[in-house]
Write a structure and sequence with these properties.
Blueprint: H1 7-18, E1 36-39, H2 41-44, H3 60-72, H4 75-78, E2 82-84, H5 110-120, E3 124-130, H6 146-156, E4 160-164, H7 173-186, E5 192-195, H8 197-204, H9 212-218, E6 221-223, H10 232-244, H11 246-250, E7 258-260, H12 273-285, E8 290-292, H13 301-307, H14 310-316, E9 325-330, E10 333-340, E11 345-352, E12 360-365, E13 377-381, E14 386-391, E15 396-401, E16 405-413
Parallel strand pairs: 1-2, 1-8, 2-3, 3-4, 4-5, 5-6, 6-7
Antiparallel strand pairs: 9-10, 10-11, 11-16, 12-15, 13-14, 13-16
Bound molecules: 2-acetamido-2-deoxy-beta-D-glucopyranose (2 copies).
One 2-acetamido-2-deoxy-beta-D-glucopyranose binds near residues 27, 188 and 190.
Length: about 425
């Protein structure tokens, strides 16, 4: 059932992936591995109604509570570091000196205080602005004020800036994002720069040629597709977009700069546990930022265990920072392979886009899915952490990939 004629093509691509660092990254010392953290957007969106809905609105209280949970419940120790605001933290106007200011009712102590609090927990604070005249939700944008805003963020002690692209002409992104990148650099504070530059370009015109080399020189992570939503069709659309552009994207994923397929929705309402673990597996294969959007004060135990799964996290945080190769797709089942350390080792994911039946059986030789080295491999199934034993190239693999799910293995080369 494995279309083996595709193997040669695949071995060539894997070789390329291993050699991927073709162009330099933004030189701010950050994102040597994909950033991990938490963001307000999908779970808390633009809820500004703190008088009616005090526990679920965008406020300093929400950020401080999430920082507490991240620090105390094991997320920080697992590598989750950035606690991030998305849109809707701002007041409706700049102050009399044209500086940005938070909504005073919802952030009564100001942003410096909030950053100090987050830092006191050993975590970092992320903030959101927009390259255009307004943010997506209509708050003051950074256009004409980028230098001042970069200075303001640095003074507050901000560690990450997500820079959106609403209310601007996406054709200007190639001027605006490098300018902001330069202004951030001039503050002398290392601020991780999360760009929506290529996303703006697909909104304008799907055929616009995105220059990922230049983006990589100016941004640490970059969103290049529509927002993720809390359902598996959204995940499949994103995975298919990454599959379609696989060869191009592989050239630009490496320490310092990573593709951002958007938030991790593990612990949300819309997806089954199987769908959530398939998302997490694929994000790890992409070397994607793992930025959760969920409620850490109230999270199912199964979801928490998944978020803290040390095997999946090790694949995401692998020091090569490679983008997995899509080896083949066959009847809705996809095979993805990612090189990891030590050299010759692999992470392998079967991603099943079918949502009917009782799953797809895979019976094949280990060499047919990438384990070709005669030294052999120590193989671990990732979700349960099961040791599957030693595989030689001719060892038979016999597994089943459930519908709307993934099957993930780490194959460490034997020496
Ligand atoms: C600014 O850019 C220079 C040159 O690329 C780099 O050496 C320096 O670390 C950067 N500083 C910050 C704060 O990003
Ligand atoms: C989309 O991009 C193509 C190629 O760059 C260009 O010829 C075309 O005019 C653009 N269309 C729009 C609506 O901007």
């Amino acid at each position: 059932m494995i279309p083996s004629r595709m193997l040669l093509k695949w071995m060539h691509m894997l070789l390329l992936a291993g050699l991927a660092v073709l162009c330099s990254s933004l030189d701010n010392g950050l994102a040597r591995t994909p950033p991990m953290g938490w963001l307000t957007w999908t779970r808390f969106s633009c809820n500004t109604e703190c008088s009616l809905d005090p526990d679920f609105c965008i406020s300093e209280k929400l950020i401080m509570q999430m920082a507490d949970r991240m620090a105390e419940d094991g997320y920080k120790d697992a590598g989750y570091e950035y606690v991030c605001l998305d849109d809707c933290w701002l007041a409706t106007e700049r102050d009399i000196f044209h500086r940005l200011q938070p909504d005073r009712k919802r952030f009564p102590h100001g942003m410096k205080y909030l950053a100090d609090y987050v830092h006191s927990k050993g975590l970092k604070l992320g903030i959101y602005e927009d390259f255009g005249t307004k943010t997506c939700a209509g708050f003051p944008g950074s256009e004409f004020y980028m230098e001042l805003d970069a200075q303001t963020f640095a003074e507050w002690g901000i560690d990450l800036l997500k820079f959106d692209t609403c209310h601007s002409d996406p054709r200007d992104n190639k001027y605006g994002y490098p300018a902001m990148s330069l202004y951030l650099n001039k503050t002398a504070r290392p601020i991780l720069f999360s760009c929506e530059w290529p996303y703006g370009e697909i909104q304008l015109n799907a055929s616009l040629q995105t220059d990922y080399g230049t983006i990589r020189q100016n941004c640490n992570v970059w969103r290049n597709f529509w927002d993720v939503t809390d359902n598996f069709n959204s995940i499949k659309n994103i995975v298919n977009f990454y599959g379609k552009n696989n060869v191009l994207f592989q050239k630009y994923s490496a320490p310092g700069g990573f593709f951002d397929p958007d938030q991790l929705l593990v612990g949300g309402f819309g997806m089954s546990h199987y769908q959530q673990r398939a998302q997490m597996a694929m994000w790890a294969m992409f070397s994607a930022p793992l930025i959760m959007s969920n409620d850490l004060r109230d999270i199912p135990d199964e979801a928490k265990q998944l978020l803290l799964n040390k095997y999946i996290l090790s694949v995401d945080q692998d020091p090569l920072g490679a983008m997995a190769t899509k080896v083949w797709e066959f009847s809705g089942l996809q095979l993805w392979v990612k090189p990891i350390v030590p050299q010759g080792s692999l992470a392998i994911v079967f991603f099943n886009t079918n949502n009917f039946g009782s799953g797809t059986p895979i019976v094949s030789a280990a060499s047919d899915i990438g384990m070709t080295d005669p030294k052999g491999y120590q193989v671990t199934e990732v979700f349960k952490g099961t040791d599957m034993g030693t595989f030689m190239p001719d060892t038979k693999l016999n597994i089943r990939v459930f519908p709307d799910d993934a099957y993930m293995m780490i194959c460490k080369i034997l020496s």
